[in-house]
Amino acid sequence: MPRAVALLRGINVGGHRVAMADLRRHCEALRLKNVATFIASGNVIFDAAAGADLAALERRMEKHLAEALGFAAPTFIRTVDEIAIVAAAEPFSDAAPTDSLYVSFLRAAPDAAAQRAVLALESRVDMFCFRGRELYWRCRGKISEVSIAWPKLEKLAKTAKLIDGTSRNITSVRKLLAAMGGEKERP
Fold first, then answer.
1. 25 in the same domain as 95
2. Domain final residue pick, 52, 67, 83
3. Which domain holds residue 169?
4. Inter-residue contact 66 to 75 (CB < 8 Å)
5. Considering the domain boundaries, does residue 76 fall inside one?
6. Is the dihedral of CA 113, 145, 84, 59 positive or negative?
7. Which of 40, 36, 48, 37 is nearest to 2 (CA)?
8. Which of 47, 69, 116, 185 might form a disulfide with 178, Cβ 3.0–4.6 angstroms?
9. Is the pLDDT reported for residue 78 higher than 70?
10. Are residues 96 and 163 in the same domain?
11. What does the DSSP assignment read for 95-160?
12. Burial class (CB in 10 A: 0-12, 13-18, 19+), 137
C-alpha cells in the first residue's frame, strides 16, 4: 500500500494542544492503517488503499477530528509521490542559502484571481510561485524576522477565502518524505 500524509492545520498552535498519541488514536478510529505522526505539528502518515478517494477521506477526517478534538483541524492529504514532487521542487532559481522556503498545501489549485491576489503581495523580500495545489513562498532571510506577507496571506485566507491550506517549511517537507519511506532526506 502506498503511504500518504494528512497535513493538519491548527494542531499545537493557538492553544489547540494535542498529544501525538491521541492524534494517532483518533486517526486509527477512522480505520487508517500503519498510522504514525511526524513532529508535533499535525502530520499523520498512513497507508492509503490503492484507488482510495482521498478527497472524501479528507472530509471524513476533518469531521471526525472536529468532533474528537473540539476544534476544526482542516486536513490536506497528499500521497508519498506528491510529497516527493514538492520536496524536489526548486521553484526559485536564484534562491540563496539564507532564504526561507515554505510550501502551502492547498485544497485545490487556485483560480487565476486568487493567484493574482497572492502574487500582488510580492516584494523584494517575498516571492510566490504556484504549482498545481501547492503555493511556494520564498522569503529572503528568516520568515519570523523580515516577512510581512504572512499576515497578509492569512487575511486573504480568512476574509476572501482565496487560499485554503496549511504550510510547512521545505526542510520539514523533505524530512516528512524520508519518514514516509520516500527519498532520503537532504543534508
1. no
2. 83
3. 90-179
4. no
5. yes
6. negative
7. 48
8. 185
9. yes
10. yes
11. --TT-EEEEEEESS---HHHHHHHHTT--SSEEEEEETTEEEEEESS-HHHH-SHHHHHHHIIIII
12. buried
